[in-house]
């Protein structure tokens, strides 16, 4: 590989660049921690039990509103329904999203609903083993409080009940609630309307065993999760700022490559591809979701993230391979197919899984791959295969890193005996590799640490008088960090434009044919290499 | 308004009762008025409570409807005891004169009623029945509360609002009077509110890229009210008898060897009356006529329940439902079974 900027940069300049990047890093953490609210909000809803007195099943369904001027006729509990001889098929659970005096906003980006049943224990009406609930659900929307509701989705879904009764099953404990698992219910990929309405029925069909053996359902609870509007605004602003930054460095990088007389080497191409994928994930296409009802934004975001991660993992493999100094086969992508296949295959499995889940939800928001046995097995299979590919990749990467370090230590012992040109070349390779290894490990460690913190902590800390949103800081900080990583990579590993010294001709005269393949360029600079560079060279000599 | 003669008699009797006796926690009475809550006609509400009643009529309806819930829980917890949390519908005060005494039972009733109001309001908020739950109306589409705007960072949980409102409403009367009983009620009301909060479960959901835990959202879910009732029942069993300290600002344990009460304990001043005998002065109705369990060894055994006065046995033939098949919600098909059982009831005092 040709000499990169990082080798020729003075220590002073390198430190200045590092400090600037650190300041941007701290700023990106603070934007999330201090300005943005928490990433998501959860609102609890308790379904209202409405009575459908219409006996006919006409084409246009009537919509039952739990509150407001045209609210439905309600029952408080099912003892009341028993007394009035109301049938199960005439009970409609009605949920209005959002709560009174609030409006949904396009800034919320998605709406995820989770279902929980309150089922009371009764000795003579227990939950059968392996029971599943059949749910007939309709979703409607309107954009002002006086409009008619417009149907958006309708589906008949099944969900498996998984309930435990922790107390003894005695008559004294009748009326106590089972401990039931949460059930996935609905996911909308965009929130384009202000008001949503859900009407849910639990139809009973004794002959077909529909909703038989589900126990005594007292209530239906939903939890609505959406992205906070403030977080969305901060996130979009960050993306809008980062896109031109990475784009500019990408253009500059390409100009540097094209200015050279030789064609770009594989590593330079891979770095450029990494910049493209980073820009692709940065482009704030989400701004369109504020104006358009595009439900595929979530899926599109997932795909972009997948592309970036695949490219990043491939870059690490190729970077290691290109720094194996004794390898005669290099600068060709075909050399790395063994290591890249696990990345591609694992990414493909996750892509299929995402299409099976979020892709189907574009048509039917109530679909969940976990609701059926076949779906659960398929999902687990895809996830397991992706996990195996991740492990394989990790082993390959560790092995290659090990090889590079062994190569480095072998080469270091030979450094004093080399000619000056060869020694400078190898020292440059060693410095480049160690620098990137250090920075990559730091970024990966930071990502893992913050992931663990966000799982364990409550989500916000009180710091002085301010509330620090740790989860938001995690998102903006880590996102900013990887952008800075790619930025620094393209800047520092761009080819240097320094002139070659006089040693080139002498190297040609004294070098043998075997070593010539290793020496594509030589490095000279009037300022000399950085202090770190000198120390590594001196250490090698000792 | 034009009252019918029986209406006039009703209000006259209410007025007479109001003047003739002191009324505690008059808001309990709202349940007996049904959905027709008339703030000015509930005896014993102080001005602040009446004002809140007028400002939030739907809240009052929800509270009235929820009274049945916590009374049922109270009666469940004490179903096998001499005092069984019975209410007297014909009295203007639900529990009669029983709560005039600063007893253990009064402490429990105040705590569970406070907890019941929090529970009821939280449910009403989740159903959307109340308008000003956790986001006060501001500009269009930008409702906000102390936590911030709904469309920026979301609003508080419903339970936080319910606790605040319950505290303001229930404690208004006690804060107006500065005597020992008021302090006791304030303490027990707060213990009840904390009991509900104690059983909020933190539930989390992982979502994000491919369902990984890239994003995780948590919320507080309210548990079964029975758990709160069980907890307060344990607190009742371990309630602490206290006296006022010399400054009149707090409590000291009545017996030096016992621990001082903390915020979760129930406190009381006076020993309980003898619930065995009917005593108009203390409000005890006695255990005469109560059904007891001859084979039990607990508090519902005939020996304990009847206070040693003996019991009557009668053979009763009754029709029960058996071999029931349930359909969810609203239908049950059963066979009728005939059986004869012995019913034991306590003798009345002679």
From TrEMBL, chain A:
Signal peptide residue numbers: none
Domain Wntless-like transmembrane intervals: 228-497
Family affiliation: Belongs to the wntless family.
Location of this chain's protein in the cell: Golgi apparatus membrane
Residues in Wntless GOLD domain copies: 48-227
UniProtKB keywords: Developmental protein, Golgi apparatus, Membrane, Transmembrane, Transmembrane helix, Wnt signaling pathway
Principal subcellular localization: Golgi
Lineage: Eukaryota, Metazoa, Chordata, Craniata, Vertebrata
Membrane-spanning intervals of the chain: 234-254, 266-285, 305-324, 336-353, 378-402, 429-453, 473-494
Highest taxon of the lineage: Eukaryota
Gene Ontology biological process terms from the UniProt entry: cartilage morphogenesis; chondrocyte activation; chondrocyte proliferation; embryonic viscerocranium morphogenesis; endochondral ossification; habenula development; intracellular protein transport; intramembranous ossification
Keyword Ligase: no
Protein name: Protein wntless homolog
Pfam families on file: WLS-like_TM (PF06664), WLS_GOLD (PF21883)
Cellular component GO terms, alphabetical: endomembrane system; Golgi membrane; organelle membrane
Membrane recorded as keyword: yes
InterPro entries reported for this sequence: WLS-like_TM, WLS_GOLD, Wntless
Gene: wls
Recorded topology in the membrane: Multi-pass membrane protein
GO molecular function, one term: Wnt-protein binding
């Amino acid at each position: 590989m040709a000499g990169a900027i990082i080798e020729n940069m003075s220590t002073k300049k390198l430190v200045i660049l590092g400090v600037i990047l650190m300041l941007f890093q701290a700023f990106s953490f603070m934007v999330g921690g201090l300005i943005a609210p928490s990433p998501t909000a959860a609102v609890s809803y308790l379904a209202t039990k409405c009575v459908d007195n219409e006996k006919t099943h006409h084409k246009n369904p009537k919509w039952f509103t739990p509150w407001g001027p045209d609210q439905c006729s309600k029952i408080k509990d099912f003892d009341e329904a028993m007394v009035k001889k109301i049938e199960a098929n005439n009970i409609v659970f009605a949920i209005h999203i959002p709560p009174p005096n609030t409006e949904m906003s396009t800034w919320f980006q998605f709406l995820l609903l989770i279902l929980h049943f309150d089922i009371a224990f009764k000795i003579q009406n227990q939950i059968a083993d392996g029971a599943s609930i059949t749910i007939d659900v309709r979703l409607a929307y309107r954009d002002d409080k006086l409009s008619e509701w417009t149907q958006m989705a309708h589906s008949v879904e099944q969900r498996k009940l998984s309930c435990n009764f922790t107390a003894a099953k005695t008559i004294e404990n009748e009326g106590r609630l089972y401990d039931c698992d949460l059930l996935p219910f609905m996911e909308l990929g965009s929130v384009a309307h202000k008001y949503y309405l859900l009407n849910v029925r639990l139809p009973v069909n004794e002959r077909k065993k529909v909703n038989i053996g589900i126990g005594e359902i007292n209530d239906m609870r939903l939890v609505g999760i959406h992205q906070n509007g403030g977080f969305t605004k901060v996130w979009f602003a960050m993306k809008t700022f980062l896109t031109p930054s990475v784009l500019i460095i990408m253009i500059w990088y390409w100009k540097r490559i094209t200015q050279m007389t030789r064609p770009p080497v594989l590593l330079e191409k891979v770095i450029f591809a990494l910049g493209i994928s980073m820009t692709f994930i940065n482009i704030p296409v989400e701004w369109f979701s504020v104006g358009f009802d595009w439900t595929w934004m979530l899926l599109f975001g997932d795909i972009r993230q997948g592309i970036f991660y695949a490219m990043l993992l491939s870059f690490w493999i190729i970077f290691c391979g290109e720094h194996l100094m004794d390898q005669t086969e290099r600068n060709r992508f075909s050399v790395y197919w063994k290591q890249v296949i696990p990345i591609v295959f694992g990414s493909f499995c996750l892509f299929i899984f995402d299409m099976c889940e979020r892709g189907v939800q574009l048509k039917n928001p109530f679909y969940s791959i976990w609701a059926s046995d076949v779906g659960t097995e398929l999902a687990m299979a895809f996830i397991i295969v992706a996990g195996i590919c991740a492990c394989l990749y990790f082993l390959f990467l560790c092995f290659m890193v090990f090889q590079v370090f062994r190569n480095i230590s072998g080469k270091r012992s030979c450094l004093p005996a080399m000619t000056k040109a060869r020694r400078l070349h190898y020292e440059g390779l060693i410095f480049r590799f160690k620098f990137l290894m250090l920075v990559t490990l730091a970024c990966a460690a930071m990502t893992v640490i913050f992931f663990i913190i966000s799982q364990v902590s409550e989500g916000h800390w009180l710091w002085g008088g301010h509330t620090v949103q740790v989860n938001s800081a995690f998102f903006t900080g880590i996102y900013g960090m990887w952008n800075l990583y790619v930025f620094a990579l393209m800047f520092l590993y761009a080819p240097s434009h320094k002139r070659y010294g006089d040693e080139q001709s002498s190297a040609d005269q004294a070098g043998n044919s075997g070593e010539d393949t290793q020496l594509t360029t030589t490095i000279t600079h009037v300022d000399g290499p950085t202090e770190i560079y000198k120390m590594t060279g001196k250490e090698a000599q000792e | 308004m034009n009252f019918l003669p029986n209406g006039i008699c009703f209000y006259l009797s209410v007025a007479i009762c109001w003047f003739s006796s002191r009324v505690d926690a008059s808001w309990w009475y709202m349940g007996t008025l049904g959905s027709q809550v008339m703030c000015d006609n509930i005896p014993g509400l102080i001005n602040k409570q009446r004002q809140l009643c007028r400002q939030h009529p739907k809240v009052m309806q929800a509270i009235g409807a929820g009274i049945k819930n916590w009374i049922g829980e109270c009666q469940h917890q004490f179903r096998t005891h001499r005092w069984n949390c019975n209410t007297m519908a014909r009295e203007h005060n639900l529990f009669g004169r029983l709560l005039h005494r600063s007893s253990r039972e009064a402490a429990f009733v105040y705590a569970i009623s406070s907890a019941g109001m929090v529970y009821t309001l939280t449910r009403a908020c989740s159903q959307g029945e109340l308008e000003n739950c956790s986001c006060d109306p501001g500009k269009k589409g930008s409702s906000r509360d102390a936590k911030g705007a709904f469309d920026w960072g979301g609003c508080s949980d419903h339970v936080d609002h319910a606790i605040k409102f319950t505290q303001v409403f229930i404690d208004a009367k006690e804060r107006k009077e500065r005597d020992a009983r008021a302090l006791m009620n304030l303490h027990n009301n707060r213990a009840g509110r904390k009991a509900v909060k104690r059983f909020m479960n933190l539930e989390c959901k992982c979502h994000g890229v491919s369902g990984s835990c890239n994003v995780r959202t948590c919320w507080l879910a309210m548990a079964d009210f029975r758990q709160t009732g069980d907890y307060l029942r344990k607190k009742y069993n371990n309630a602490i008898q206290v006296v006022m300290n010399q400054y009149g600002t707090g409590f000291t344990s009545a017996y030096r060897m016992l621990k001082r009460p903390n915020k979760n304990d129930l406190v009381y001043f006076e020993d309980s009356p003898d619930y065995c005998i009917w005593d108009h002065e203390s409000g005890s109705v006695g255990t005469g006529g109560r059904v007891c369990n001859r084979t039990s060894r607990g508090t519902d055994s005939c020996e304990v329940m009847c206070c040693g006065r003996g019991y009557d046995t009668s053979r009763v033939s009754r029709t029960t439902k058996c071999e029931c098949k349930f359909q969810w919600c609203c239908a049950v098909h059963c066979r009728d079974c005939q059986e004869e059982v012995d019913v034991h009831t306590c003798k009345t005092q002679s």
